[in-house]
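WARN no homologs supplied; continuing
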Amino acid sequence: MSDNQDDKPLTTWEMLHSVLAAAFGVQSGKNRNRDFSRGKPSQFILLGVLFTASFVLLIAGVVQLVLYFAGV
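OK structure emitted
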């Protein structure tokens, strides 16, 4: 049964979970091994870039909102 699981590509949820864990710097060894054996680097790079861009835009938006309410 584990052979069948090893052949299956990662789901979007599994990849997102791995990218979020990498962003916070926490990842279990089991998930890391799963990512390296079943994941494609290009998918992780794309998802990581999208996550980073979204995070930067979110922080910039929050800063703009705080400055607006502060009257600056």
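The first helix runs from residue 2 to 7.
OK
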